[in-house]
What we know:
Layout: H1 2-10, E1 16-18, H2 24-31, E2 35-37, E3 56-59, H3 68-75, E4 79-82, H4 83-93, E5 95-100, H5 105-117, E6 124-131, E7 136-139, E8 146-150, E9 165-168, H6 176-179, H7 182-194, E10 201-205, E11 211-213, E12 218-223, E13 235-237, E14 241-243, E15 255-262, E16 265-271, E17 276-281, H8 288-302, H9 307-316, E18 325-329, E19 334-338, H10 343-356, E20 362-366, H11 371-385, E21 390-393, H12 409-415, E22 420-423, H13 426-435, E23 440-444, H14 453-461
Helix pairs in contact: 5-8, 5-9, 10-11, 11-12
Amino acid sequence: MSALVRYFLSKGKKVAGYDRVESALTRELNAEGAEIHYEDNVDLIPSAFKDKTQTLVVWTPAVPHDHSELTFFRENGFEIMKRAQVLGEITRTTRGLCVAGTHGKTTTSSMIAHLLKQSKVDCNAFLGGILKNYDSNLLLSDTSDLTVIEADEYDRSFHWLRPTMAVITSVSPDHLDIYGTETAYKEGFSYFASLIKKNGVLLMEENVDIELQLQKGVKVYRYAMNISPPAPLHKERGESSLSCGEGGGRGADFYAKNIKTGKGEISFDFVTPEKIIPNIQLGVPVKINISNGVAAMAIAYLNGVSDDELRAGMSSFQGAKRRFDFHIKRDDLVLIDDYAHHPDELAASITSIRQLYPDKKLTVIFQPHLYSRTNDFYKEFAKSLSLADEVILIPIYPAREEPIPGVSSQMILDLVTSPEKQLYSKTELLVHVKKGKYEVVLMAGAGDIELLVEPIKNSLNG
């Protein structure tokens, strides 16, 4: 939402809004000219925004349907659009490069935006994280009609988009409170792919397995972190059904080879269907970014970014905030903050840290996000967290949900097999951290755990 706030401010519009909690980001938006308040109270809506002839109301499904301010706008006939609808309108008038997936979409879309922005091609971008290179989640261009958009599958929001090119990074079951079943979740991604404009491009991770019904002339490419490929896989698809992923191990059009790690660096050669671009250096050198980087470079390459621009962009990419974000990086102490909130994401983050610091004790502080997700995947969360030496859980962040009886962080903790494990309140956590001894600490979750990063950093440094 904050990217749209900035977009409308850049167009000279007045912007006001509600958020549940004040944060560094909302304070920045207020400083930039937005009027944001934190109490659900119709009286706090600025008077200028109570004129329905002059006001567009934009909301996300994170806001409950009984929200009194949203109810006021509905009952009084205001024009109301979902965030995704607004982005969908933008993709109808520009060339949308839309990145979807259960995980990896924020980093991949941020990489694409940076690669294009620092090249001769340029772009606009609406991102799901704050890109450190620009300290913003909104990038604007006076010369390019390319628009990078992170495509959110929650509430089927990405079905409003009309991509020219689309990326699907992964399809692991999530948001079952919306989709109900894994099959329905996959069908959501299948429908998203069907929305790619004629003669467009679909780029999918090698192991993504969904049914496709594509528009005429859409080219399908596969990408992977590191494979030995068979014959090139890209071809034009007509308006017929295609099942992807059957048989497995079919290879990819874009992938990395000659991967080298050491001394805190990762480099590799980028393989395209036409050529090999050697010596790509990852600006954020963690293993999970190899795959993200291959996808991002593939889209940039297909849009005309040169070999030298790809190298420069990948090496200068600083990452998005809360995506493997280092807050302390010393020989004796490391603190990393990460948005991981799905079991697969947690496992990938923990595994990457293990590879970076194989001889260090790893402590994971995790805040589960949503009662429904916890209920659906508590066994999988426990399995992922058990990869750490020590696990500390805090209570579930409810976001839009009411509590589900019997569902709590304790469900996960009971199944964790790590030698050290504990459940604390936020207050107890800060007290515990002051007393403990740590080597590598990962803080993970999509809730308000980010507000604890600075206090824990201060305690660790103290």
